[in-house]
Amino acid sequence: MDIGSGYRWNVPVLTYGFDRSFLNYFGSNGITAVEDAIQILNALPPASNLILTNYPLSSQQFNAAASSLALQDLKSSTLSALLEQMGMAAPSRYVFVLRQWNPYFLTLPYENEWPSGTIPDYIVRRNFDPATQTASNSVNGSLYTGEVYTTGDSGVNYMFVYDADPFSDGRSIADINTFTTMGAFYTGLTYDDVGGLNYLLSTNTVNYETLLSGIASIGTNSFVNGARRPGVDKITFVAQPAGSLPGTFLPMTNQFTDTYITNGHSARQQLRRVTTQPDFLFSADHSFHRTGTTNWINNAFLNNNPTGEGPGIIQPPVVVAFTKVVGTFIDNGNDENSVQSSGFSYGSFGDSSNVPINYPTAQTGNVSMTVQVLLQHANKESDTFHNFEWTTNSQVGAVYAFQTSTNLSTWTTLFRATNNI
Q1: What is the pTM of this model?
Q2: Higher pLDDT residue, 152 or 199?
Q3: Kind of pairing, strands 328-330 and 297-298?
């Protein structure tokens, strides 16, 4: 989004919880990893008091053992997902954005070749300096450049952004789910991350906003809904009370003071918000995914920008689902030895010499087993992955043979899979 068009939460307390799939797959260690990420955000001072220079240009470190196991740090991935769902896109990804195609990109694709007027007529910049709030090619002090890339057969044009110095490290936490490095973990937020939060949540950033549904006044029947509002300054995540069964929840009431602008002056009202389900629900699924932006509310019209894409507010529910299966590629060719496994697993690790936790941790009894398969035909350019899940009667250590048949009488084994979870 352009500066001034960002989306944010306008309540100071957000709740979180874990569904049954997360609890079954990641267990108590996974809960700890997620809550460690949440604690980093909860420990931040109010946005208006953030001193950007107190935060490093890089917080990335590496664990060699985790890298050899192709592990992605669950805590770091959670922190990145939280920032995204607080309104922050991956900054280095949007240093340049292709706005409109021009044929000269075929011969002049690189930034240093673009003729005058390319920006902003054909390319726009959507990364902003945290201090000056002006469009910038740098993230955490690292300079990025780009090229317009055109695929051969499909004719799709897109912007490829990359670090101008391959030895620098400008990745922010908001970047890491877009640009994953196995074995990397992050000790905290970076300069660029806190700069984004400072802008979105600061009391100096005033937008016309409506309140979330489910909010009511304390002591009176009426309250001011639509109004010009400063940022809430500080967001705190709290656990939604758990129900008697795993993955179920009890209602929770939070009271807060809402500040709005009327007749050029600040006014306050006491409000309460009841949540029956977590604002942020952490889950486990066949692939990493999270809630999109379709339920975000665009208040551009209310902010005298009728054709704009913002500013607006974020509203629940948010679901963040982490991968619980390593992708398996099956080459259905003449060579039976061409079966390969690829992908990554989530883990928990740091700078200690302790063996990384590799999810899922050991389980006993009948557990779910998921296999992801791509059968690629020689006469087709691409196929889609399909997931098969056994939810019962799958003992740990059980071996399954995956077979094909043309007559349902004679069967050929493609590969075998062992349930190791």
Answers
A1: 0.85
A2: 199
A3: unpaired
